[in-house]
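Protein modeling request. Please complete all fields; requests missing the sequence field cannot be processed.
Requester role: graduate student
Desired output: 3D structure, token encoding
Chains: 1
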Amino acid sequence: MSTTTVAAPLTNSLTAGKLPKYSAVVVLLASWLVTAAVFLIVQLAGISTSFNVAGTLFFGTVLYCIAIYLLSYFVEGVRKAKDRLVTALVTAAFVIALLPLVSLVATTVINGLPAFLTPTFFTSSQRNVVGAGGGALHAVIGTLFITGLATVISVPIGLLSAIYLTEYGRGRLARAITFFVDVMTGIPSIVAGLFAFALFSLLFSDPGIRFGFGGAISLSVLMIPVVVRSSEEMLKLVPNELREAAYALGVPKWLTILKVVLPTSLAGIVTGIMISISRVIGETAPLLIISGFTASMNYDLFKDRMMTLPVFVYTQYANQGTDTQAYLDRAWAGALTLILIVMLLNAIARLIAKLFSPKLGR
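Delivered output (362 residues):
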């Protein structure tokens, strides 16, 4: 008598109890569709006058977090479900933090592109222009001149201060410098403008003084503490073993800093400098006080008023003429130009950091 044994079906233990690869994306899209349908029904019912895109994305993401947790709980178990829930929450937090930036850039591009693409925007100033036309060449030149001079003033002072605090500073003087740098980091920008205005008003005995160099000084007051703090933190990240190895070879301390410490931390230092430039390039209050505003070109930092892009955006929006839309378009185009300058500076900084940072090898 023979017996027939039926083999059990083969199962892959590595894939059993596991959701498909693209299940998270499918659940997210389905959640957005469900919430979109709800908001569409609300709109058709007359409760709301327009379709709520932000509400759809937000509540759809919340629904996704709940749905992916429950689905994973019943299929994969509680440990994997918790992992998927935390992953969904972290991703949702990142997207929510990114939405204002995306909205800001999109709004600026949409509103500023018409005036930005006009042939005269980068070839002429606003001299004798009371309606449509004109450009922001005088503001672009003023921004580049004032911010460039502020950078030339701030970077050496800030970097040398950071080197002193990291490599040499001990005792009361170092603690005092650190304290005042921390205080300067949090001062309002208008205080820096008032400081520069009061300083040059007393030096030149002119209560109505306005010139570009004063604006550079006020911006440098805001830049220096940022450069000091960021550079100091980058210098502290350099391993002490590198310094000790250089000292063991008989290299002087100043040469060790110049040839070992600074090249090792160059990428972080350049990033900190770019952050400080981005911090001040959009300041309006200090420049409005000490640099003033004008509709004409001015290439001299030490004479007469000088226009900058932030002040240009402010004046175009605040002092609208008969053709309101032309002024608003120029204001948005000025803001778009400012964003593009900051993006270009950051791209250059990344390129410099990549080219001059030390190459690690085996």
